[in-house]
Amino acid sequence: MDRSGRARKWVVVLFILMVTLQKAGAQTVEELAVAYPHAYAVMLNYTKDITLFMENGEPKAESKVAVDILILDDKANGMYNRYTIYHGSFTPLGKVDAYTDVPVKRGYDRIKVPEIKTDNSRSRSVFYDDVKVSSFDFPSLKKGAIAHVQYTQYDNDVHLLSPLYFVSYMPVINQKVTVTYPKQMVLNYKLRNDSLQQVQVVTGKKGSSLTYTFTANNLKEMDRPPDAPSPSYDEPHVLLYVSSYLDKDDKRVGFLDNLDELYQWNYAFLRKVPAVNHEKMQLVADSLTHGLHSDTDKARAIYSFVQHNIKYVAFENGLEGFIPRPADLVYDRKFGDCKDMASLLTDLLTRAGVKAWVTWIGTRDIPYDYTDVALPLTDNHMICTALVNGEYVFLDGTDPGCIYGFPTAFIQGKQALVAIGEKEHKVLRIPEMDATKNRMVDTTLISVTDKGIKGSTRLRCYGYMGTAAYNNFSANKNPEDNKEDVKRYTSKGNNRFILDTFQINYISDAEKIMCIQTQFSLPGYYNKLGDEIYINLNLDKLLTSDHIIDTAHHKTASLRRFKYILNQYTKMELPEGYSIESIPDNFKYNSEELSFEITYTKESKAIVVRQQLQSNSLMLPKSRFVDWNNAVRKIISQYKEQVILQKKS
Description:
Blueprint: H1 3-23, H2 29-35, E1 41-55, E2 58-71, E3 82-87, E4 93-104, E5 107-112, E6 117-120, E7 126-129, E8 132-137, E9 146-155, E10 164-165, E11 172-182, E12 185-192, E13 200-206, E14 209-219, E15 237-246, E16 252-254, H3 259-271, H4 278-288, H5 295-309, E17 311-312, E18 314-316, H6 327-333, E19 335-336, H7 338-351, E20 355-361, E21 381-388, E22 391-395, E23 415-419, E24 425-429, E25 439-448, E26 452-461, H8 463-475, H9 479-490, E27 498-508, E28 513-523, E29 527-529, E30 532-535, E31 558-559, E32 564-573, E33 578-582, E34 587-590, E35 594-602, E36 606-615, E37 619-620, H10 625-638, E38 643-647
Parallel strand pairs: 1-11, 7-18, 17-19, 25-32
Antiparallel strand pairs: 1-2, 2-9, 3-8, 4-5, 4-9, 6-8, 10-15, 11-14, 12-15, 13-14, 15-16, 20-21, 20-23, 21-22, 23-24, 25-26, 26-28, 27-28, 29-30, 30-38, 31-37, 32-36, 33-38, 34-35, 35-36
């Protein structure tokens, strides 16, 4: 390139950069680095222009996205180079243009991204899907550089419009989303989690079309600790949906205006399920329930068969992600996704005389209720709902360890959309299993020796606690793995704990009840001063400093898998020639989320300590963090109390 050509190139690049920086409020790299001291890069501009239109009598959408990333520190190189775009049969990707404008002595050089690779998305939970990922690496990310990408993406079914999130993995200086739609279309939106009013909404016109414009500025980067719920619980976002439109004859066509219309869209997929071999499936149902007379026994038997004989394999390939496969095909292949398992369960239960229906539901990753957000994004899962002895039972075949009568833990508290018939549905609330159903009970007997203490433990697990332990231990092939897991479940006192022997008993496969029995020793556990022995009988610290929440950095609620109770019963035989000098006072704490109790009881030749910790919430809100931490600190303080034994004179 000659000098005049290179000069023209610099002029063009400088002009674009001036426009980009003007959009950012003319803040310099240094000013932004001061404003965001922990950020190595900021998203200067994120713009998305969505255009909805009618094509062949159906609503469609096209989105044009442009992103500018300003590098504030050379350390961004290696952290923010990779950029990915997900797309598939419902959201095909158009042209992609990406480059980096790199500062040099006389201006900027533009370095194009050399290659954009497109591969299949390889989700660990999905056997086959049609989701593609196009990815590339921005070159030369040095301080002052601006990485730019722009692309076009299409929505072939606007029932499935993605939420618009106003947050990113780096600070966002300017974000603007413009939605343009024709007058014959009714487009609505729901703005969620914007108590700080960060998102500004303006309605307008563009020629003969209508517009929504959503803007936000100076957004902090997303910071999600491991126990955080999904961003849809607390990050600002917009849900766009078409309520209705006018067809070519100016007649209203309902789209997603209410729950009935969502149900009709869902039910249309059930109509596409191929017919089953009725004679064959009746024989299967009869064989599984032979000799069983109650609906409960029939439902248990069929559920257990599906759990243990149908392997969960997810499919998300176009319409395969929405249409259940026929029950006979699932039975023959012995594998299927959540919809396939729901299809098989519903078919077999119905043939056995138990009322059952396929059911759409969202997992706890999704915060929406059907009665509030009647949109396809409210669910991502399918189960079977059965009516057994007048009570609804929610059966999820994807978890082989789930106990009959328990919902899978990840759908507790969610609304379920039950497909009663073509024109009839029910919305039911999945129960949250009470803490009393999910228990771990530890009974430990100890005695004092010259070298420390020795003892035995019997640990029993029930409910979700039992499922977790049962699945964990039954999956171990190596005895050494079992030994390490037994240590993890039953270790006492401190790191001197020695597991001498252990035995695992699987008491009930159906109820997932198991028992671990151990013999152990703890060298040097107590202190002896003269004629007195000082010993801490809180061998299990159910809460420690690790459970204190860092309120300065933890900015989201804290998610828990299930409610539970931990019971710890410790009995110490008095050593020969010793009596009880003193025991600590009993302690009790109660709050909405947590209850805890320690009691000390004297017996003629022993001391008994009982602990109980009860966790009562599936999610701890930020507003309760201070109270939670205060409770944990009080409990930790109680754990320091010791029993004093006095040698008899």
